[in-house]
Specification:
It is a single chain. By secondary structure, the chain is an alpha/beta fold. It has one domain: Glycosidases (TIM Barrel, Alpha-Beta Barrel), CATH 3.20.20. Helices cover about 25% and strands about 20% of the residues. The protein has 7 helices and 9 strands. The chain has an 8-stranded mixed beta barrel, surrounded by 5 helices. The chain is globular. It starts with 7 loop residues before the first strand and ends with a helix.
């Protein structure tokens, strides 16, 4: 397995409808998990999310879904994401689907606030029974550090974006460690940027073995190990 950080495996990509996708080729190239855009803002749903979910699962890949945030009401955004992923649909098994809030600068106007992020993740938790992961880099780090340890987001496993040789600058009062680390967007950040025979794309590391990744996915129990878990998780 590729190792970008000592002790890590570099086997995860995150993509959206504009990226080429061939689940079997990805699996053969060494990819073990795909996190795909499901929705953005209050209304947009990725048109190929559901089709690619079936293809990925058929190829034996782990699957995840992320919501690209905006400043629209958090309730509307959470509903859009839950609808896009078919959360709660008895005909869709999402027990192994990783859910994630992508907290970064919006591409369509003002950014999501920290309070809106709190509202969003709580609504996803209430619907699915588990806290979603949260993705972010500078914007997330600055927002959390401005307020100290975050009593809500600490329950969400951290997917940290930092295009450096190592994932420095994590707000450790809230997250003692990252769960996933996005080290490149396919252009910025250290190599490797592409799997053999594939185009460059966002790539992500997990600190552990492939077996450990498969066992931990979709990180539904992370909140049990969060700082102060016995005091504040209920």
């Amino acid at each position: 397995m590729p190792e970008t950080l000592p002790g890590s495996i570099d086997v995860i990509i995150d993509i959206h409808h504009d990226n080429h996708f061939d689940a079997v080729k990805l699996r053969n190239a060494g990819v073990r998990a795909v996190i795909h855009k499901a929705s953005e803002g209050a209304t947009f749903k990725d048109p190929v999310y559901r089709e690619r979910r079936e293809q990925a699962l058929a190829a034996g890949l782990l699957w995840g879904a992320y919501h690209f945030s905006s400043a629209r009401p958090a309730a509307d955004q959470a509903k859009n994401f839950l609808d896009a992923t078919q959360a709660g649909d008895p005909d869709v098994d999402n027990r192994a689907t990783l859910f994630c809030l992508d907290f970064e600068p919006s591409s369509s106007g003002p950014d999501m606030t920290l309070a809106q992020a709190h509202d969003f993740v709580a609504r996803v938790r209430d619907k699915t029974g588990r806290w979603p992961m949260i993705y972010g880099g500078n914007m997330l780090r600055d927002a959390v550090q401005a307020h100290g340890a975050d009593p809500i987001l600490k329950n969400c496993p951290l997917w940290y974006a930092r295009y450096r040789g190592e994932p420095i600058g994590i707000p450790m009062d809230t997250w003692p460690h990252f769960t996933l680390w996005q080290y490149t967007d396919g252009r910025l950040g250290p190599p490797p940027h592409a799997f053999a025979g594939m185009t460059a794309t966002d790539r992500d590391c997990y600190l552990g073995t492939e077996a450990a990744l498969k066992n931990a996915w979709p990180f539904a129990d992370y909140f049990k190990t969060a700082p102060g878990a016995n005091d504040q998780n209920g």
